[in-house]
Amino acid sequence: MSNARKIMVLGAGDIGRRVFHELAHSPGARHVQLVGRDEETVLKAANLTRFCSVQRGHTTDVSHAGTDITDVARTAERIAAFAPDFIFLAVSYQSWWVISTLRQDAFQRVYAANYGPWLPMHLVPVMKAMEAVRLSGTQALVVNAAYPDAVHPALAAAGLSPDIGIGNVANNVPGITTAAADELGCSTADVEVRLVAHHYVSHRLSRTGNSGPAGMGLGIRLGGRDVTAGLDVAALLDRLPGRYRRTGGLPGQTMTASSALSVLEPLVDRRDAVVHAPGVDGMIGGYPVAIEDGKFRVLLPDGMTADEARAINASGQLHDGISEIRADGTVVFEPSAMAIMKEELGYDCPDMKLSEAEGRAQEIAERFGAYRDRTGR
Q1: pTM beyond 0.70, yes or no
Q2: pLDDT digits (tens, 9 = 90+) for 55-110
Q3: Neighbours of 47 (CB within 10 A)
Q4: What single-letter DSSP state applies at residue 230?
Q5: Cβ distance 38 to 31 under 8 Å?
Q6: Which of 300, 318, 287, 114 is nearest to 204 (CA)?
Q7: CA–CA separation, 238 vs 210, rounded Å?
């Protein structure tokens, strides 16, 4: 397929394989390549996807390659050889669900620190991947799955931020859309949700039905007209963990994969769309975004200013355990969140420069491993 759009999925973990699999099931001209560390895993995953695609009558080109994300030069060679139009990063040293494998009481104690203190585990592999992207000379558009709300603004100072993220803010939009459509007595196709929210808020909504102590911004439009004021928004959101509850945890990553595809497929298929995404152009938190001619434009709820949206996301960032991400990429962690990490894991990091991130990631990995051994499963 000489005119096929080429998409590289870098990272063969759960979310990478899910997205890779779905991208191959298209009548459009595509070549998708899965790249991961373990040759046997990547080969079998690529063949499974290839055979399923053939079974359903598609002719998508499917291939695979091997690299370790820590080997920047080799990863750059892989990127240059494939020459992708798009790169989907699904790389992390420790996925979000791993702490849930702890014994329940230990999990609850660590969980209370929220997500921010674990930032090095996501930032470092994305940073290495982006160094490889720059070294390869590719002009590919880069879409990242690993904590874009904080990873992107931290890397922006070094010119290493991916173009856009996926998941987080997007994951609750279908539930809100469905709840609003049911309330309004219309089709979900007639409802447009505009949600401004940080990872902290998006993580809470489906579990508690509210944003907790953090801010959020929500607009609901029906047929292009704002109808938010006429709805009991609090009651609507309160139904998310009730009537509109869904499967969560690792099986629930189907939702995150769908959020990734909502961004990737309009880009690959050259069509305009309104989506939700975190880390757009290196910004903190998540936004509604218009994809137009392969570019991104933030769409705010009616009446909301850009400063108000930034303040909402800064509020969520604080409650996620990050006080500030400075212009030079230095991350200042929220003291009460770090106090939990110190108490439980013996890990204490008040602030972190980009140059310190790799050492901090290694330290967290070692301390978490020891903690898991100590507390049992």
Answers
A1: yes
A2: 999 999 999 999 999 999 999 999 999 999 999 999 999 988 899 889 999 999 99
A3: 12
A4: G
A5: no
A6: 114
A7: 7
Provide the 8-state DSSP code for 25: S
CA distance 144 to 278: 9
Taking a C-beta distance cutoff of 8 angstroms, is the pair 84, 140 a contact? yes
Q: Are 9 and 16 within 8 A, CB to CB?
A: yes
Residue matched to tokens 């590719």: 138
What does the pLDDT look like over 320-373, one tens digit per residue?
Answer: 999 999 999 999 999 999 999 999 999 999 999 999 999 999 999 999 999 999
Which of these, 66, 211, 78, lies nearest to 136 by C-alpha position? 78
Query: What domains are there in the chain, each with its CATH number?
Result: 5-168 (3.40.50.720), 169-319 (3.90.110.10), 322-375 (no CATH)
SS3 letters for 140-154?
A: CEEEECCCHHHHHHH
Q: Are 49 and 24 in contact (CB under 8 A)?
A: yes
Looking at every residue in the chain, the average pLDDT score rounds to: 96
Report the C-alpha gap between 367 and 71 in whole angstroms: 24
CA dihedral 351→354→355→356, nearest 10 degrees, is: 40
